[in-house]
Amino acid sequence: MLFNSYIFILVFFPIVFAVYYLLLNLKNKNIAKIFLVAANLYFYSYWNVKYLPIILSSIAINFTLATLLNKIQGLHLKRTVLTIGILFNIGLLGYYKYYDFFMTNVNAVFGANISLLHLALPLAISFFTFQQIAYLVDTFREGTKEYTLLDYAFFVTFFPHLIAGPIVHHREIIDQLRDGSNYKMKSANIASGLYIFAIGLFKKVIIADTLAEWANLGYNNIGSLTLVDSWITTLAYTFQLYFDFSGYCDMAIGLGLFFNIKLPANFNSPYKSLDIQDFWRRWHITLGRFFTHYLYFPLGGNRKGNARTYFNLFVIMFVSGIWHGAGWTFVIWGILHGVASVIFRFWKTFNIRLPKLVAWFITFFFVHIAWVFFRSPDLTTVKVMLTKMFSLQSFHFPARMTAIINERFGTHFIPTTYYFDLKLILLFVVILAIVVFAKNSIERLKTFKPGYLTVAFISLLTVISLMYLNRVSEFLYFKF
Is the model's pLDDT at 403 over the cut of 70? Predict the structure, then answer.
């Protein structure tokens, strides 16, 4: 069930919202929370009920291990239990997400013939696995004795963030559940939720899905692309991913506000970044936060000298690449960002500042090129696309210009047929100006005030989006 679908917007969400607040009127918060957890699990299993036992088992085992950690006194035994918990979660993720990738490479390198399992990747496993690893580590460090199984299940399964983030910290959810004022309907939160949900829906349905058509057309016809076509194709994906992920983050925040749960910001205009470090502070913020607190700091952070700092930076970017997908394109994408992070860290030691425009261009250009690896299904596609983008042999004048040149100079250039209308270049300039200079939705939400103009604005965005829901498509981060 997708946020951008009729069944979610017109059936599932209204029913869950109405029943939840009706049950709260019974003066028993636990009944309402049990209902919402059940609704979360229904939402999760809607795609495939076979996923349900996996997430239920994960919740049960992790909560049991956390309970043991809270009761055990000996440090050595606590470390053993924590290690078991981390290995269980990584093993679960590795089995479903990476087994076939690993065995494929073993077969290729050693000439083996190990059978592949062809397992379907359980929805959201990368997200709920990381959240529960963080929970176990925090239980080991500071304890979580005050949490009930119901609160824990709510934290893991809350449907606005369940499928594609943000990767929430347990206190960000459970502390709000413990605030009694959050168990009544708040009109201000509902208005804010409608506002940012409508913006996110428009980003996804109208902007991202339109860009997806151009990106997919280009990648599906990669052999016939000209130099200009290749740049249009890759820019279409660069902006598609931006609005797709940004739209999901907005919709998740909006849905959370309906239940008085404020989810953390996960996206903050990353294409405004002036360096790669700033980019990762703005893109998938909660994933970066997870890697910082639960990998970078335990590895030593920046406390053990420059060489170790560079190594730690590289490791978290490398792991980020693997986390995003089981394939060499994702591995190399992570390596590229790791190398870029190390280079930037080294550059900072010289205390030299580039002009802002130059710094922005270098950052955006690098991120854009790296997205080619992220989008491509294999390294062969990467090679072809990058060759198209940077080889003058694939540059051709448009048909009208070719005709003028032939007429004036008596040449015999063959007119070129472009896959895309070259007016798209102008459109991309406009889109780039918006993502670089305009206020983002999180900034607008902070200053949001209900009024007639905002009602008209929300209504317009929603109506336009609903008209195009017939071309339903998954969010890109669902596959991770």
Answer: no
pLDDT confidence tier of residue 1, bands split at 50, 70 and 90: confident
The DSSP code sequence of 98-109 is HHHHHHHHHHHH
In 111-226, alpha helices (H): 125-142, 149-157, 159-162, 170-177, 187-202, 209-220
| pLDDT (tens digit per residue) in 221-263 | 998 888 888 999 999 999 999 999 999 999 999 999 999 999 9
CB 477 within 8 A of CB 126: no
Angle 125-142/52-71 helices, nearest 10 degrees?
A: 10
Compute the half-sphere exposure of residue 345: CA atoms within 13 Å on the CB side of its CA.
18
**Annotated active-site residue in 161, 284, 324, 337:** 324
Mean pLDDT for 201-218 is: 95
Which of 416-420, 421-425, 452-456 has the lowest average pLDDT?
416-420
Q: Is 25 helix (H, G, I), strand (E, B) or coil?
A: coil
Find where tokens 């559940």 sit: 177
Task: Identify whether the C-beta of residue 153 lies closer than 8 Å to the C-beta of residue 59.
Answer: yes
* Positive/negative CA dihedral, 431, 433, 436, 439: negative
> Quick one: which of 322, 288, 326 has its CA closest to 166?
288
Cα(473)–Cα(16) distance, rounded to whole angstroms?
Answer: 23
What distance, in Å, lies between the first and last C-alpha atoms of the chain?
16
**pLDDT value at position 460?**
95
Chain Cα centroid distance, residue 2: 15
Task: Write out the DSSP string of 414-480.
Answer: PPBPPSS-THHHHHHHHHHHHHHHS--HHHHHHT----HHHHHHHHHHHHHHHHTGGG----GGGG-
| Spatial contact of 268 and 285, defined as CB atoms under 8 Å apart | yes
What CA–CA distance (Å, rounded) separates 109 from 102?
A: 11
Share of the chain above pLDDT 90, in %: 82
Q: What's the confidence (pLDDT) of residue 411?
A: 55
> DSSP for 259-316?
TT--PPP-B--GGG-SSHHHHHHHBSHHHHHHHIIIIITTTTTTSS-HHHHHHHHHHH
Distance separating alpha carbons of residues 83 and 128, to the nearest angstrom: 18
* Residue 29 amino acid letter: K
The structure's pTM equals 0.93
The question of whether 284 is a catalytic residue gets the answer: no
Q: What is the pLDDT of residue 408?
A: 62
Strand partners, 421: none
Cis upstream peptide for 270 (omega within 30°): no
CA 136 to chain centre: 23
